[in-house]
Amino acid sequence: MLESPKKNPIWMYMIMLNSIWENKYWMNSGIMKVMRELGRLFTKLNDLKNNYLNG
Q1: Is the pLDDT of residue 13 over 70?
Q2: More confident residue, 4 or 21
Q3: Cβ contacts of residue 11 below 8 Å, gap of 6+?
Q4: pLDDT tens, 14-52?
Q5: How many CA atoms lie within 13 A of 47 on its CB side?
Q6: pLDDT of amino acid 15
Q7: HSE-up (13 A, CA, CB side) for residue 40
Q8: How far apart are CA 32 and CA 25, in angstroms?
Q9: Does residue 2 carry a pLDDT above 70?
Q10: Cβ contact 28:34 at 8 Å
Q11: For residue 48, how many C-alpha atoms fall within 13 Å in the half-sphere facing its CB?
Q12: What's the CA gap between 52 and 46, in Å, rounded?
């Protein structure tokens, strides 16, 4: 039988580390998604500019 988290500091520590890791992971993936979107937008704008200059 597991002890309750309040009585077991190691268990609390593990839970805390896990939630911190998950938050970092989600934050990083969110940043990556934003960067990818910005990159896509930039390429689109660049294409439009090139078409305008060449056309």
Answers
A1: yes
A2: 21
A3: 2, 3, 5
A4: 888 888 877 787 778 888 888 899 999 999 999 999 999
A5: 6
A6: 86
A7: 6
A8: 11
A9: no
A10: no
A11: 6
A12: 10
- 3-state per-residue secondary structure call for 1-55: CCCCHHHCHHHHHHHHHHHHHHHHHHHHHHHHHHHHHHHHHHHHHHHHHHHHHHC
Per-residue pLDDT at 45: 94
Contact 6, 15 (CB under 8 A): no
Task: Compute the distance between CA of residue 44 and CA of residue 38 in angstroms, rounded to an integer.
Answer: 10
8 A C-beta contact, residue 11 and residue 3: yes
